[in-house]
Amino acid sequence: MPTVSSTTRPQRWQDKLKPGVLLRAALARRGSMQAHLGPEWHTNLHAIHETREMTAILLTDAAALQIMVAAKAARRLGGVMAEAGVFMGGSARLICEVKADSQLHLFDVFETQQRAVDASGSELRAHFGTVHGHLASVERLLSPYAGVHFHPGFFPESTIGLPDHAYSFVHLDMDLVSSTNAALDYFLPRMLTGGILIGDDYYDPGVRQCFAEHCGHGGYTLMELPWGQAMVVKHSPL
Fold first, then answer.
1. Which residue among 40, 127, 138, 213 has the highest number of C-beta atoms inside a 10 angstrom radius?
2. Contact at 8 Å (CB) between 171 and 83?
3. Residue 181's closest CA among 164, 160, 165, 204?
4. Where residue 119 sits, what CATH number does that domain have?
C-alpha cells in the first residue's frame, strides 16, 4: 500500500506562523500579494533589479517577470521579437536577457515627438509632455546584446520598409488608445501560431476595448493578468 508523502500532509496550525505567512495575509487584505520564487527564478529577478539600477522601468516586478517568462517561452518558435513603446529601454533589456538568438525590433518615437507637427505628434506631446526616451541612451544600454534593431519615429509609419517578419513575441507599452490600436492592427496578423503578445495599460478602458475588438473574433486567447497587463496567445496560422 503506498504511503502518503510528507508534502501532502494537512497544514498544521504551526505552519501558519512560519515567517512570511502573516505578511502574506496582511498584504492579501490590502489587495497585494507576496510570492516565494524558487532558485530557478533568481536570475530573472536579479536582472530586473539590476536593470532598475541602470534605467527607469515603469513596471512592477511581477509585470517585468511576466515579460521575461513569455519572451523566453516564445523564442522556441523562431521568428523575431518586437517591443513598441520602448521609453528608456528597461523592458527591452529584460527581453534581451532571455531572447537568446532571436532578433528584437524596437519601435518608439524617442525624440521625434518633439519635432512632429501633425495630429499624431500633438496627441503624443499632450500625453507625454517633454518626457521621452533618448535613442542614443537606449542604444548604449542595449549595446552588449546582439540582434537589436531600432525603428525611431511614429508608429506605424516607422514600420515602412521593414520586411514582413513573423513575430514570436511582442510587448506593447503604448499608453495611448490610438497607438495601441495601430500596434494591434500591425502585429497580430503577423504573429506566429503560438506567439505571445503582452500589452500594458490594460486597466485603461479604451485599451481594454482595443484588445476585445481585436481578439474577440476567434483565433486568439486573451488573458487578463492581475497586475495591469493583458496576454494574447495566437492560435490561427499566419
1. 138
2. yes
3. 204
4. 3.40.50.150
